[in-house]
Amino acid sequence: MCDQFSNDRLVEDAFALEITFPTMTEPSPETHASAREMRAKLDSGETTAREIALAHLQRIQKVENQTNAFLTVLGEEDVVTQADAADALIQSGNASALTGIPFLIKDNISTNGIRTTAASKILDGYIPPFDATVVDRLKDDGAIILGKGNLDEFAMGSSNENSAFGAVVNPWGKNRVPGGSSGGAAAAVAAGEAVIALGSDTGGSIRQPASLCGVVGFKPTYGTVSRYGLIAFGSSLDQIGPIARTVADCADTANTISGRDPLDSTSLDLEIDFTKFIDRDISDMRIGVPREYLVEGIEPGVRSAFEASLAVLEGLGAVIEETSLPLTDHALAVYYIIAPSEASANLSRFDGVKYGMSIEGEPNARESIEATRGSGFGPEVKRRILIGTYALSAGYYDAYYKKAQQVRTLIRREFQDAFQNFDALVTPTSPTVAFELGEKTQDPFQMYLSDVCTIPVNIAGLPGISVPCGLSDGLPVGLQIIAPQLGDQVAIQIAHAYEQSANWKLTPPEL
């Protein structure tokens, strides 16, 4: 059914042909065009979904041993079956925006019959009997699933070095991280291994890797996309969203995967057309620049690229003004109490009894569970479980978790007040460009600071999108646009206007 990649080896019968690994070369047009460009060619008959799918499988063959972006790749027969069904939809005149478009699905999103591990040993070999709602909706639209993307274990990390199956490598540099936790998703899109990827964003895990890999990453308003089938990390923070090459592709994907889902009690009962305002100009829109996001630790090249992006927005007629969000300084502390607390509850279900890894032979069930968790969870996951369990424990709940939730409410109100004066806010997506592999693994606090610009968006449940805004030392920089709750269309409108004007079409030099 499925063929699997790991950091150590590539299953060589994945495509029923001999696999070789040349150095990265210029990708073919079939593997670096946008989904909308492919849509036009598919609809005109210039190409077929089968041809596009096979081109991407060949691309994966060439570069996967250098990126390690996939944990599972479907075999050629499975992919061709999907592609032929997509071609039939196109010929019948019933194609949607995503029909025939190849996708990668982050490996913490359930896929029926396809291994889903959350990049953890404790779930190695787990094959879900159901699809996540977002996957089900992609299939209904005729999208092609190529495989599952590597990530930080249980989505806990900012560099994709916490995966039990090896780190993902940023295609922009052989010794550079892709960001996390959706590092495999961002790297695959940047490397031409997939056109669009679905990731999850708990504290920046879509936007930060998109920034570091030079692609677009969109986190919708909390509740607009169903979380059913997403392996939970922080349930009040998690949100599924797309990573793609263009803002339009992200918007089209959001249209497909969003909407009310009775299987998710937090999903909102409303319909949003994410492309509704995408082609409108942004003249006279008021955009705020929170001074707290340009703090010490922002690399000079990132600051320069960000300031240049403000000039582009002004040139488009937007009114740019500095503003202040003082509670931003507390967001990181709030996040690293709330998220680990929710994780400690969510991950208690992994005990080796019902599914996944199980270490048997211990004197009793309790010791068997302890041995399974001790061996199955990685060090970062254990760290966060311990932090969360401590914060929720008797005698500390009020001092930590309750206080964090109170400050969270204040942060939300602060954003609401800011949006009384501004249509949107803009910040750097990440304070740094892609750092070197191993550079921050021994200092968790420095690693956590990688998400300082993105975490407040999750705490407040807001929509945010990252678009490329230049290079620093030859590595991509991202611009983050933040809109009010349910203001997703505004974020996309501004991001698209900037993208079309700045015209940053970044391709890794190795490719």
Structure at a glance:
The protein is of the alpha/beta class. The protein has helices at residues 35-44, 49-67, 76-92, 133-140, 183-191, 207-213, 247-257, 300-315, 328-346, 365-376, 379-392, 398-418, 444-448, 455-460, 488-502, and strands spanning 2-4, 70-74, 102-106, 144-149, 196-201, 216-219, 239-244, 286-290, 319-323, 424-428, 464-472, 475-482.
Notes on the structure:
- With 511 residues, the protein is an alpha/beta fold.
- It has a domain at 2-257: Amidase signature (AS) enzymes (Alpha-Beta Complex).
- The protein contains 15 helices and 12 strands.
- It has helices at 35-44, 49-67, 76-92, 133-140, 183-191, 207-213, 247-257, 300-315, 328-346, 365-376, 379-392, 398-418, 444-448, 455-460, 488-502; strands spanning 2-4, 70-74, 102-106, 144-149, 196-201, 216-219, 239-244, 286-290, 319-323, 424-428, 464-472, 475-482.
- The protein has a 12-stranded mixed β-sheet with strand order 1-2-4-3-5-7-6-11-12-10-8-9, with helices on both faces.
- Strand 3, helix 4 (133-140) and strand 4 (144-149) form a beta-alpha-beta unit.
- Helix 5 (183-191) runs parallel beside helix 6 (207-213) and helix 9 (328-346) crosses helix 12.
- The longest helix has 21 residues, at 398-418.
- Residues 1-27 have low confidence and may be disordered.
Uncertain regions spanning at least 5 consecutive residues: 1-27
Q: Would you tell me the overall average pLDDT?
A: 92
N-to-C span: 30 Å
Q: Give the helix/strand class.
A: alpha/beta
CATH architecture label of one domain:
Alpha-Beta Complex
Residues in β-strands, percent: 5-15%
